[in-house]
Amino acid sequence: MSAFRVLITGGGCVEKIDDVRAITNTSSGKTALLIARVIKALNPAAAVTYLMAERAVQPKLEGKAKTAGGKAETVCKTKTAGAAARDSVKNFNSCADLQKLLRAELSANKYDLIFHAAAVSDYSVQSLVVDGKEFKPGRVSKISGAKNVSVNLKLNPKLLAEIPALAKKKNKSAVVVGFKLTSNASEAEREKAVQKLFAENNPPDFVISNDLSEITPKSHPCVLWRAGDKTQSACKAKKGGAAASGAVIVARGQIQTIVRKIYAFNS
User: Which of 69, 113, 131, 200 has the most crowded CB, counting CB atoms within 10 A?
Assistant: First the structure.
């Protein structure tokens, strides 16, 4: 099996409030690392670029290099059939950080498979009002003793809406996989959330959906959706292992099974 380049994002964004507080989430980055492990098991020569939140669990690679911006980048060389492929890790904190990294990577490099598993903040801080005085986020010392504090939020861009167009400029056959996490949602609500992603101008090729109510330390059930498939009966069909109804490609199972199925489409 030939080597190819994979880009994986993982972990949760951190949006600064003051110099000690921030808006974040519980994403650990473990799903991104599991995806990479499955891919490496299928193709040890695959070159993986990890864009990981700074506070997430990091992949264990060897060696150090410097990025253009001066920040440390971990690099590991992997021998391929004709060249030395590089696994690398680049870190981000905020949605803006990740957007910048994605644009740089997808503009400079040709990727065959992209998994966008990072938990991107829907909102970031636009400004703070402390006892009537306005401040920019992250540019104010720890707020303490104030009687009135307001945090004004702004909507962050949807990074998944940018990734397919950027990736396919370099590689028309690039496969883009997005994630959609819901919380205590019904089957109909989960399907609606997925179809909303597919309705974007630049939709992903696949969406892996999961619901917070079903995730445990030992189990991570999820559903695989493919763009363009009819999904009217998907929710009824998917119980008990793999399922297909007409053109539907929907599978319920662990992340490992889902990743193997997606990889098969691209190998």
Answer: 113
Cβ–Cβ < 8 Å for 185, 169: no
pLDDT tens for residues 111-121?
A: 999 999 999 99
Distance CA 129, CA 167 (A): 40
Quick: pLDDT tens for 153-211: 999 999 999 999 999 999 999 999 999 999 999 989 999 999 999 998 899 999 999 99
Taking only the tens place, the pLDDT of each residue in 71-103 is: 545 555 544 443 345 899 999 999 999 999 999
pTM here is 0.84
Alpha carbon 101 to its chain's center: 13
